Every structure is written in C-alpha cells, then in structure tokens.
Amino acid sequence: MAFARRNAWLNFPPRCAKARGVTQPLSFQRMILTLHEYWSQHGCLILQPYDMEMGAGTFHPATTLRALGPETWNAAFVQPCRRPTDGRYGENPNRLQHYYQYQVILKPSPPDLQALYLGSLAAIGIDPLVHDIRFVEDDWESPTLGAWGLGWEVWCDGMEVTQFTYFQQMGGYDMKPVAGELTYGLERLAMYIQNKDSVYDLAFNDAGVSYGDVFHENEVEMSTWNFEVADTDSLFDQFKKHVAECENCLGKQLPIPAYEQAIKASHIFNLLQARGVISVAERQAYMGRVRDLAKGACGAWIAHNTAKWEARFPGWAA
Amino acid sequence: MTDFLLELRSEEIPARMQDRAREDLAKLFTAEIAKSGLTASEIVTYATPRRLTLIARGLPVETAAVSEETKGPKASAPPQALEGFLRKTGLTREQLVERDGVLFAVVDKPGRATSAVLAEAIPAIIRAFPWPKAMRWGASSTTMESLRWVRPLQGIVALFGDTVVPVEIAGVQAGAATVGHRFHHPGVITIGSADDYVEKLRACHVIVDQAERRQIIALGATMAARKAGLELVQDEGLLTENAGLTEWPVPLLGRFDAAFLSVPPEVIQLTARVNQKYFVCRGADGALANAFVCTANIDAADGGAKIVEGNRKVLAARLSDAKFFYETDLKVPLEEQATKLDRIVFHEKLGTVADKVARVAKLAKWLVEEGIVSSPSPRSRGEGRGEGESASSDALDIPAQPLSPTLSPEGERENLAALAERAALLCKADLVTGMVGEFPELQGLMGGYYAAAQGQDPRVAAAIRDHYKPVGQGDDVPTDPVTVAVSLADKLDTLVGFFAAGLPPTGSKDPFALRRATIAIISQVIEGQFRLPLSTVVAASAAIHASQFVYWENEFHKGDDAEPRHARARLAHFDQEYDWTKGNHTESAIERKIGGSFISYYEWDGEPDFIEFAKYLVFDRSVDGLLDFFADRLKVQQREAGVRHDLIDAVFALGGEDDLVRLLARVHALQAFIGTEDGVNLLAGYKRAANILKKEGVSLSPLKGRGRRNRQRLRSRWRSIRLSLPLPPRWRARISKPRWRRSPRCALRSMRFLKA
Predict the structure, then answer these.
(1) What burial class does residue B699 get, using C-beta atoms within 10 Å of its C-beta: 0-12 exposed, 13-18 middle, 19+ buried?
(2) Element (H, E) at B429
(3) CB 3.0 to 4.6 Å from B103: which of A161, B96, B457, B589, for a disulfide?
(4) Environment class of B14 (CB within 10 Å of its CB; exposed 0-12, middle 13-18, buried 19+)
(5) What's the mean pLDDT when you consider all of chain A?
(6) Are residues B68 and B91 in contact, defined by beta-carbon separation less than 8 angstroms?
(7) Is the pLDDT reported for residue B352 higher than 50?
C-alpha cells in the first residue's frame, strides 16, 4: 500500500489526500512526514534541523550559504524557529516564541515551482477546487541577512500558509542562479487542515497527543525567561564575544564557523530585544552589525569556493 | 488589414502593477511598430493575475515601401570625406545621386512583412518593459544579463491573423497555446486568432477583461449584501485590487461574530480591507454590520461554504487581535502611554517622539498664550487686524463660537492654553498602543477614541484625533482652536527641526513630507484667519529646539547613570567619530563646536536670548531658508487657487511681511485693484514711465548703498516717474502721499512685478 501511494505521487498533479482514501485530517507529525515524502520524491535532500537557535528557516546554512554559487541544490527540512518577542506565555492561541517552519530550497528555481508547490498542498489534503488558493504579492526581505527576493504569500481561504520567494540577493550578493524558497508555516497549516482554533489543540500524532501536551509548558517557561529572567549583562557580553569570534573566524577564512557565530549573535540580539534593553536608536546599529557579520560569512563562503565553482561551471563568475 | 494578439503569460503579477503594465504595453507596442511606420487602428489591453494581453487591430500585412535619403558631402569634397560617407552608407560612388553639387545617398526600402516587424518588436518590448520591480529566475539566471520580468515569464501567444509570429525569448517560444484557469482548467488551450481569444478563455474560466471582472465583483458583492438585507460599503480601490487578484471572481458573503462590533468601525473596516481585502457592509441603520464580502478565485465545488468558513476564521483571528489590542489599550491611560514615547526615535537628529511631544506642547501653549491662535470671536478678531485690509473682511465672517459667559478673555485664553498643552502632551501617545502598532494608519483616530473613553475633555480628544489634519487637498481643515494650536505646533516643530538639522527638501525629494506640512499650516492659518507672524513663530520653535538640545547635553554631562544609554544615543549623531561599540564619548562634537560655557548657562526655560542662541548653535543655517520655503509654498498654493502669480510676486517683493493673512489680503486687494479702470491706467502709466527711464538709461533695479546721495537720486527718480504717469488726479495724489514718497523703492518694486 505504501509503495502504491508513493508511486501515485510520482504522477503529477498528485491526487489530493482525500482521493487517496485518507479521510482523517493529517496529524502534525504525519503532515511533516507527508511533506518529507513529497519533496523527497521530487528530488530534494531531506535534511534535519540545524542545531542552533534561529529566527527563521532561511538562516539554516542549507539555505543561506548553499543558495550562493552555481551548484544545483535541492533540499527540504523542518527548522524550529525562535522569536523571543513573539512569546505569549502560552496564552495566545496563535502566537509562539518557538515554532516550526518547513523549508524547501530549490536552486536553480525550477520552471514548474508553483505547480510543485500546489502538488504539495494537495498531498497534505488541500483541494484547490474547494479551497481558494491565491498568490498575493509579498516581497520578502531579511535585513539581518542582507537578502531579498520577490514572490508571494500564498493564501488559502484568506489565510497566509506559505511564503514563496525567488531569492534575488543573499548576504548582499546577487544570486547566480536564482533559488526558489518555500516556507510553510507548519502550525498554521495544521490548524487549517485539522480545523482547530488553537495551536495547542492540534493533534500532534494520531494517538491523542496534542501540540499543547508537547509544547505548552515550554512556551510558558521560555516566555518567562525571555521576557523577565535572562541576564542582560551576560547577553550583552555574549553578543560582543560572538561578534569577536565571528571576526576571528573570518580572519582565518572559515566561513561556516563564522556564519554560525553570526547566527548566535543574531539570536542573542533577539533575546536582548525581548528583554527590552535595546533602544530603538541602537536597534539599527545592532542589526547592521549582525548583517555585516552575515555578509562577511557569505563573502568568505563565495571566496572560499569561487575557484572550484569557476572550474566546474565555465563562464560563471561571482 | 489584420489583427494582432500578444499574450505574455507569467506567474502571478501583483495586482497593484497591472493597470500601469497595460498602459506601458500599449505605449511600448505603439512606439515599436511606429519605427517601421506602422500604426494600429485600435489597441486593446487586458490584464489578469497571470497574463498581460494586447490586441492591435487593423494592421497592414506589410509596411509601405519607403525611400530614405541621406545628405552626403559636396561633390567637390576631398576623397576622404567621400570615402567616409560611402563606408557609412555601404554604397558605391556610382550609386550616389548628385543634386546642386551635393551628393545624396538614396536607399529604397521595400515594404516588409508586418509579422517580421512584430517578431522584432516583441523581444524589444519584453526587454524594455518598465516593471517597478523585476526579477530573474531559473537555470538561465547564472548571469545578471538573463531576462527580467515581474515574475517568471511562462509563455507567449503571438498571433498575427491566425499565424504564429515566430519569436523566442529566454527559452520561451511564442505559439498559439495558452492555459485557462489555474484550477478549473489546467490544460492547454489553443487560440485561433485575436477574435476568439476572449471567448475561448472565458470558456476556460478566465475573464480576461479587468473591467468586466470589476463589474462582476461590484455587482456580486452588492447583490450578496442586499440579499442579506445589508448595504455594501463601496470601495473602488478594493474592487480594482480584487479584480487584479482573480481570473474568475466569485464574491461570497460571510458573517463574523457580532461581539467584535464593540471595536471602532474604522478598525474593523481597516482590518478587513488591508489584511484580507474584504468589503464590509452597513445595516439599515447605517451602522457597520457583522458581515464581510470576500472574493474567491474559484467556483467552489461546495458553493463556497468552506471558503467562507475559512475566511471567517481568519477574519475572526484578526478581529480578536484587534479587539484584544483595543481593550488592552483602553485600560492604559494615555498619560502613561505617553511616557513610553521615549522609545521611539522621531529622527536621529531630533530626538525621540517624547522629545518632540515636549516641544510641541510648549509651542502649542505659546501659540495660544500669545493670542496667535484664539477662539474665533469677532472681538478678538477686530483687535488683531491691521489697517487697510478691508478687502478681505468678507472672508473673515466665520460664525463665532459661543463663548462661555463666565470666563473673562484672559481666563478663556488660559483655559485654552491649558487644553492645547494637554492635547499636545497626549497627541502622540497612541503611537505606542497595540492598535496603532498594528495599523499605523489609525494614528490620531485611536488616540481620539482612547482619550474620549478615558474621560478627557472632548476638545482635547478632538484635537488628538484631528491634529494630523489636513493631510491632503480636500481634507477637512481643523478650525477648533485647541486642535489648530496642536496641529500648527506639531507641523511647525517638524519644519523647523528638519530645516535646523540641515535636512530641507531638495528637488523632488521630500522624505519628511515638509511640503505637505507647510501647505497644511498655510491652509489652517487662512481658514482660521490666524495672525501668525512667521518669523517670530519660527524663532520660538527654534528656541524650544535649542533649549531642549542643551537639556540633553546637560543630562549627558551630568554623568547620571539613569539614562546614559538614551543620552548617548541622542548625541551620537552629532559626533561622526562616536562609536557605540567603543563607548568613546569623552569629547562630543557639541563641546568642540560651542565650548563648554554655554552648556550650564542656558536652562530648559531659557532666556529671551535663546532665539539668538538657537541661531548660533546648530540652528544657524536654517531659519531664513524656512521663510523662503514658506513663501514658495504659499505661491504654489495660491497659484493652484487661481491667483495670478505675478500679483503674489509683487506683494512678496515688498518684503518685510510675514503675516500670511495680511499678505494674502494684500494680494487680493491688488488683484481687485488691477481689475479696475484705475488699475489699468496705473499699469499703462508704469509701463510708459519705465520705457522713458529705459531710454534715459536709468535702471529700475534697487540702488545699492544707503548714503544720502543715493537717497536723493532715488527720490528724484521717483519724482520724475510720478510726474510722468498719466494718472487721474485722485490716484496721483494717492501715490504722492507721504507714505509712498518715503519709500519709493517699495512702490517701484511692487509695480515692477505687474505685467501690464
């Protein structure tokens, strides 16, 4: 049965979940497994989350660094995201300081990227002849990564379920070639599919464990720590040290460790913001600092690989 | 004659760009084919989210033959010149035609097939297309030279008559095939010609014509509302946007929980419109109803039940956010919110919003205390009015507000000043509320709601609500003195601040909307006939800026650790070498600039010398430029109101007048006078006098120097002019009055600007 189902997905467009005989809405974990299966069928590497705190899946080096350069790169992964200022002590049904993004990065962007994406929606049970799916202009920009792209937010019956972006620049460098990025908001999608009003009511699996069972306490405690407890002097100190360490790595031509330090500095900055100790005036300066680090790492990554890339892709130039 | 169809199919084009893109496509196409001498009898353009289409009707099958003639060198010219000409034209000497000793190259160009012209024009149009934002994509984007389009270009239909125009660009081959609706008809359809394009697509669930989609939405939404016993709140912008988001629009009505109606209607409407692009409805009583109309892009299998339900949920989540914000905000007094304004930087050179509020409050209070802004009572009006402005008296008849009988004029003024100060102190407090954080467009409005709900004086609440007004032409101009005081103070403070910081508008760049602020000041002053002595007011505002600046400097040097971060941040911009990471702040630019002595001398509520000090300190470069800026804006504003600008120039040339009301009264008086017989005579006389003087070689430009001899020369020149004027005795007597005799230069200058 499993084998037959997989084969069915090879035919495009795939039949939607209902047509496959799946009647029960997908649980949170089954939705992730389904997406893994789908994108794996379409030639993506299935990576695991990066083991560091970050504000968005785009920070994963598999996106940021791998998006640069001429090599083909197709990957999909789940990335936990931490946004300390979004914490609501587990009281708001829609906002979390820790949540999951499903990230797909395809370089170069395939010509049928929209169709592929719609196929993935059908696979998790969204029928486009019953639900109103729309591509609404939304130009994406990440000031901390020095990155921007054009694309849409994808609406499903008026709800934004995915950010769909054609990267044009990363770390201040032009994309050659352009990569397509899909970022699914997993909790939102699951709330939609399962018809739940609160994220904590989501079925995590098919055996009665809810999202709240897994994460509610985490939200309460982490919100408390983010907003009230975290030691700001120590955080300021850590920020400085990560900045220094990043520069150290850049000096030694080690782009990946340098980029990791930039991610760390970025997260520390987010924590400082949640603690409310960074004034608006300073905010720009801190963000500029992180951006410089990220740009430095991207630059080092390009410098590190240019010789190899130019040899393998004649005519390509950074 | 044949028709041409061009469809450029891409991934979803942003709705806001579609109208402009249609215009650009028609313009580019017309220009491209005109190069080959072609014109279409009619051009129609369509746009949907996924396609941009042009139909050009009545094109000839081939272009007319033309004979192009190029002038060459003379027949007697040296051989080098001839050689060069031959090389340029690619002809031989024998092929040139000689006429009057000059050689001409005549090239007969036979007519070309129109489809060949089109095959060249299409790639040129695509490459030159001026999208506001374009992108690269796909495997070809390894170079920066790859094709750019608004979103990935997917297909081209190019049919001249019923034949495909052979074009290929960036790997996309033109053909006759396109696709229908993304979900209703995902397969390929083949277009026969321009004639069946619209209908074939309609059969595949695509309404190509944006106007038709608009109409479907307008009609459908209105009908859906009517069926529910409601009236749709019309919104042209939303119609266009929804038409730009759909190929097969289906308006659907849904309901939201009536409990959300406790939130101000503006908030509900904005949430629905901005975030979700929904229409809202009114009930029979005119109040907002708990219904919305969304526009789906499919004819859903279940009639749209799931779509409505999904949209209802999203709107409910948005509205519950809004409701939460509203209720949370209501619990916090605006006074308390106002204390948080020091977290928002107004501009790095002008401090935080809290700093701005402090300045605005001082200025607003001052404006009332000085009697510049006062309650519109006939009595106070009469006092302030100068002599000889009877021409404008009609304009002053504004219905007076009933004054409280118990208050003396002084008491009234004090009361007003207190209200204005209070309103100014609270006017920006809503910027830190959750609601305005979510919807910045609601600034002011929310403050007004919160103030009213929290029991502030209704005039204070109104002032908070309306102090941003007027925001454009046709917007209401506030007239209540409390509102006017806050509004004027807010805008003056912004103007003076940015001029002082050396950031006046330049050319077309006006990032801080200073032109709009100036126009707003002018229209309020004129509307309320307030006597605003510009230079004094500007100086007062500059002084407030300066005193506050010194205050920061003091705080900074106190070394008080309470707010070191803020003081440092505020001062950082004045010192180029200041680096927040190094914490190096021992020597600030200010200290270098003015020395330490001023710093402790001036205090917050400074001395009258402050005006001088303001100019001396950072504000030295600004204030004069600001007055000119005002004059320019006034000229623009009056010109738009239909006043001859030479009249304005004439009055401005008098100089020394910085009271807008009086200035305009003069303009109007002059305008009225020019229209009379006397005026016509005077102009004729002036012209004659000027001509006489010109013949005698006397310049009308003002004499330089102030010596006695100069004065005498001037006076005698004036006398000769006066006598030469063919004026009726009455008018001659008038300009011989001592006042005019004494300042002939003014009289002359003012006349010089009048065009006879």
Answers:
(1) exposed
(2) none
(3) B96
(4) buried
(5) 90
(6) no
(7) yes
pLDDT band at A61 (very low <50, low <70, confident <90, very high): very high
pLDDT of B738: 54
Subunit contact A175:B141, Cβ cutoff 8 A: yes
**Residue entry with tokens 């035919």:** A11
Mean pLDDT of A39-49: 96
The rounded distance, in Å, linking the Cα atoms of B379 and B400 is: 10
Q: Which residue has the higher pLDDT, B94 or B35?
A: B35
Task: Please identify which residue in the block is written with the tokens 């829609």.
Answer: A94
Mean residue pLDDT of chain B comes to 79
A residues 206-245 near B, CB within 8 Å?
Answer: none
B571-612: per-residue pLDDT in tens? Answer: 433 333 333 233 333 333 333 333 332 333 333 333 333 334
Enumerate helices (H) and strands (E) in chain A, giving the number of each.
9, 9
Task: Please tell me which of the candidates B14, B138, B246 has its beta carbon nearest to residue A137.
Answer: B14
pLDDT at B596: 32
Residues 6 or more apart in contact with residue B591 via CB below 8 angstroms: B599
User: How confident is the model at residue B546, as a pLDDT?
Assistant: 66
Report whether B653 contacts B684 (CB < 8 A): no
CA distance to partner chain A, nearest, from residue B146 (Å): 10
Max intra-chain CA distance, chain A: 60
The pLDDT value given to residue B529: 83
User: Measured between CB atoms, does A149 come within 8 Å of chain B?
Assistant: yes
Cβ distance of A157 and B565 shorter than 8 Å: no
A131 contacts B310? CB cut-off 8 A: yes
- Encode pLDDT of B711-723 as tens digits: 666 666 656 655 5
Give pLDDT, residue B348. Answer: 67
Tell me which residue of B6, B17, B5, B297 sits closest to B150, measured CA to CA: B17
**Optimal mutation site among A134, A232, A236, A273, interface B, most CBs of chain B within 10 A:** A134
Chain B residues near residue A128 by CB distance under 8 angstroms = 182-183, 298
Instruction: Find the CB nearest B137 among A109, A131, A282.
Output: A109
Nearest CA in chain A to B341: A280
Name the maximum alpha-carbon separation found in chain B.
106
Question: pLDDT at position B589, please?
Answer: 36
Which of B136, B186, B310 minimises the CB distance to A178?
B136
pLDDT of residue B205: 95
Task: Name chain A contacts of B142, Cβ cutoff 8 Å.
Answer: 70, 108, 176-177, 313, 315-316
Residue type (1 letter), B750? S
Q: Tell me if B371 sits within 8 A of B413, measured CB to CB.
A: yes
- Distance of alpha carbon A278 from alpha carbon A25, whole angstroms: 44
Integer Cα distance of B440 and B420 in angstroms: 24
- Nearest partner of B748 among B688, B707, B690, judged by Cα: B690
Would you state the pLDDT for residue B67? 78
- Count CA within 13 A, CB hemisphere, residue A128: 23
Nearest CA among B250, B271, B280 for reference residue B317? B271
Q: Within an 8 Å CB–CB cutoff, is residue B348 touching chain A? A: yes
B347 forms beta bridges with B351
Chain CA centroid to CA A171, Å? 16
